[in-house]
Amino acid sequence: MPVRTVAIISPGDMGHAVGRALVEHGLDVITCLAGRSDRTRKLAKLGRFRDLPSLEAMVAEADLVLSILPPSAAVDTARLVAQAMASAGKRRPYADCNAVSPETTRRIGREISRVGADYIDGGIIGQPPGKGVPTRFFVSGERTDIVAELSGKGIDVRPIGAEIGRASAIKMCYAALTKGTNTLYTAVLVAAEVMGLTDELREEFLYSQQAAYKQMQARVPGLPADSGRWIGEMHEIAATFEAAGVTPKFHQGAAEVYTLLASTPLAAENRETMDKSRGLEEVVRVYAQHLRKR
Fold this sequence. Notes:
Blueprint: E1 5-9, H1 13-24, E2 28-31, H2 38-46, E3 50-51, H3 55-61, E4 64-67, H4 74-88, E5 94-96, H5 102-113, E6 119-125, E7 135-140, H6 144-148, E8 155-159, H7 166-194, H8 198-208, H9 210-219, H10 224-243, H11 249-262, H12 280-293
Parallel strand pairs: 1-2, 1-4, 2-3, 4-5, 5-6, 7-8
Antiparallel strand pairs: 6-7
């Protein structure tokens, strides 16, 4: 059966953009907004999602379910959707596209397989669709062909084998670099601020590390808006590395940095409401002030 109707849980920053891209390519995109926030409802409207009253109604209409949400909610969400499939008598292919470790994706797969539905392991790399090159969806498992039907519809689906866990692992390695580097930048700048060396370090960076400093200016001010949901992602990366025999401590430390950022007033903002004129030095002062309070 060709994929014509795609259910997305949930229409957040990435999920609503994926849904919008699929709608623009002629697919019907559905979700269930029961109990969701006003912001999520607004994003679903921007993505032109069709809202259904329950998970049972959603899975009854879907040809494919994509889970795109914070990693801390991935297992419980899969369990709820599996229960809805059993209740509705509709076993739909389920692709977990969240930033989770290989072990976590296997746990999710067991929840879905238990009710007789196909499970696909997924990992999203890149900016949301509509921001440059197509977002890449790495997928692994026996039924990657189902998700591969979406390739070319605003996303680039990349099957990488039949083993569940491979797609999640590549996402973990990629995010270990990108989001991990952001926390290293933040830690360096906060340490300099606390020691009264901000001006001197900035001058040296502008002299010898101009590319890195430009990245700091571009990335560090906006991190609090995402910090709360990235704490769990750092723990998933740490678990992935530890299982591979690599130290988990880099990303345990990264989780601590995101925990600090999540404790600041700036974390109350989101990507729509953040003050984009706020500069690097201003936010680092805020971070350092909250470090002293901890």
